[in-house]
Amino acid sequence: MRAWVAESWCEPEELLLKEIAEPEPGPGQVKVRVAAAALNFLDTLMIGGRYQLKPPLPFTPGVEVAGEVVAVGKGVQLAVGERVCGLLDYGAFAEYAVVDEIALARVPAGKDLVEAATVPVVYPTAYCALRLRADLRAGEFVLVHAGAGGMGIAAIQLAARWGGRVIATAGGERKCAVCIEQGAELAIDYGVDDWVERVKAHTGGRGIDVVVDMVGGEVTLRSLRCLAWTARLLLVGFAGGDIAQIPANRLLLKNASAMGVVWGAYRHQQPQVHRETLAQVMELYRAGTIRPVVSKVYDFDQAPAAIRDLASRNTYGKVALRL
Predict the structure, then answer these.
(1) What is the pLDDT confidence band of residue 208, given thresholds at 50, 70 and 90?
(2) pLDDT at residue 193 tops 80
């Protein structure tokens, strides 16, 4: 099969499109003919050896797929021919991928496979963050950083659906407009405005109850100045590159909590929670409650350009490769 391969830690342009052996499913696993693979910011980190998971070299990047089941391992309930989408540790940027059945879901009838490929990472992560970690309540103020990204849009949609009052930050007028379109009541251009003061003014001085932070660094530290009493600061990622050293006194003064959100690890640590969360997300998707925003679809041969555009923040929402 054809697959994109990182033979060493590299930049997107150094990935190689090669012919490699097709993978075969083991017990509890499913072989998927990949119709689409979605991109995530972690892909840019993983190929450079900067992600917490460092696959053995050489490896095929990509963690999000959708396609058709073509073979199954022992003990699997899914059947050959079913349409599925799911999450894997790596290996999505290929014509075939092997995925643990627990990390797969059936794609609802009528849903496009390219769109479905963009669901399994950001929406369960946002669900986990807002429901399982923050226990979001209706009427609470939610601050979503990088609001026009895939994870940002997922968090805005779910928070607004559950009665949260969403404020988003994003870079530029177009991305701020995307945040408003998805359900934010206020979107702040962090390149122009003092977002801390805008947040304080918009909340009448109360502050933010839940912060969804995918950026890290200075953004995390400035978010501490926006916290309401009993606020929850959700640390989802560090797309800005820096990991903030949080001054604990800020949390103490607001009786606040800072907590991590790692969706992918649930299938290993709490598999039943993983199943239930994925099932809830797919039901929301089937019903149209969540609506993936796919801003650009690249041909499979354009994977390096797609990764570069994502890393350069030249996209919004989700981007995907079509095979």
Answers:
(1) very high
(2) no
Which positions ≥6 away from 125 have C-beta within 8 Å? 151, 154, 236, 261, 263
Tokens representing residue 281 in the block: 């997300």
Q: What are phi and psi of 213, to 5 degrees?
A: -115, 110
Contacts with 155 (C-beta within 8 Å, 6 or more apart), sequence order: 126, 129, 130, 142, 144, 147, 212
For 7-47, the pLDDT digits (tens) are 999 999 999 999 999 999 999 999 999 999 999 999 999 99
Helices (H), the chain: 41-46, 113-116, 122-127, 150-161, 173-182, 195-202, 217-223, 248-253, 266-269, 271-287, 303-311
What contacts 104, CB < 8 A, 6 or more positions away?
A: 30, 32, 78, 84, 85, 86
The answer to whether 321 touches 298, Cβ cutoff 8 Å, is yes
Q: Which pTM value belongs to this model?
A: 0.95
What digits encode the pLDDT tens for the residues 133-173? 999 999 999 999 999 999 999 999 999 999 999 999 999 99
Nearest to 44 by CA among 219, 217, 240: 240
Q: Name the nearest CA neighbour of 238 among 256, 251, 221, 252.
A: 221
